[in-house]
């Protein structure tokens, strides 16, 4: 193992490197031998692995009351030892078919925002510095970096980034679910189905999986729209936006229409988020705000959704109480629109009677997990980005913690149904910098190193054995029930 210890200049006051200037240029070749012994800070007997993990858990639970004087060398020796043992348990490659996929995006959640949010969490818990705390996403065993850029722009924005993450190819800025043949605002290009990209959610539907998404933005917003829509302008969330651009809304379907009537959108089982304004006509007042809708075509898409579903197994809700009252055992399709536009920030949820991301996630998984063929669930914490744009740092941190709660809920709930779940977490930023990718589950070890954003859904498709553009001729041994079937498969190209 090669270890290159480096510290940024800003780590030392005024650039002073302190008493260890020799550390920076040194390359250390380290051999680690795992021996059974009793380190001084763990007492006089040899602790078993389970005892060490239990001790670490207890330390974590009690550390918010730990003073700085107790965090001495013995404390950190113990911390490192237990962390190593935990890694030895968790860092195992799983080469099985992924039954379920949970895809999480922290929109605008760059590495600096994650770091600051973790410190913020620790300080709220009364830790010495805050750095001692951990986020649930930090506990996922596989971590990678992803490049971020568009086909025609070096710095990515929401639409092209989501097309790469969900459709597996770079696209042009401000377009959703379309190939790079389509430029921004090209209605004719949008109509051409040859330019339509297949999302990983659509591929899951084609495999017979249940699908759904949970967001705290509008359900027609640019990121989640890439799961089901094809739009040459990310702003075309309703028909008026299309006509305001000088295009014919009868020929160029807006995003909301595609969600309700589109080939992919109409098959989505669970739709939870905000954005009633894009769904109702300007002649109808919103149930909470009394503001008129944005649509000028007279369509009430909420009513259209209800009319297209079996009333015995479909439910529409618009507040937290209604959501938590849903009988998930009897519900196969759920539409929840909890706000006029984007949902409120985390600290506004109670006053708005809005559910949290975690609460929406739990309900979604309860419904989707009934399908024996598995499910695909997309989760987006979209208001992190908006808080950062507004220079509201504390709100951004609270949004990260809210997303982290949803990740914890997903990991906890999903374990009740299967141990074979892929859980990628992708950060997205507008700074042009690489972003982090956290993952666990079957084949998640392939999400390592530095990759293009467009690589990520191909790994998911490979793990879940989905027919996805670019990989139809490349399926692994895990996709076939018996050894004889895959060895005789005409397109088998996998070499384990």
UniProtKB/TrEMBL annotation:
Q: Which SMART domains match?
A: alkPPc
Q: Which UniProt keywords apply?
A: Membrane, Transmembrane, Transmembrane helix
SUPFAM superfamilies the UniProt entry points to: Alkaline phosphatase-like (SSF53649)
Report if keyword Membrane is assigned. yes
Using the UniProt record, name the top-level EC class of this enzyme in a single word: hydrolase
> Any transmembrane segments, and where?
22-42, 101-120
| EC number(s) stated in the UniProt entry for this protein | 3.1.3.1
User: Do you know which InterPro entries this protein is assigned to?
Assistant: Alkaline_phosphatase, Alkaline_phosphatase_core_sf
CDD domains reported for this sequence: ALP (cd16012)
Q: Which family does it belong to?
A: Belongs to the alkaline phosphatase family.
List, alphabetically, the PANTHER family matched: ALKALINE PHOSPHATASE, ALKALINE PHOSPHATASE-RELATED
Name of protein: alkaline phosphatase
**Naturally occurring in which organism (per UniProt):** Orchesella dallaii
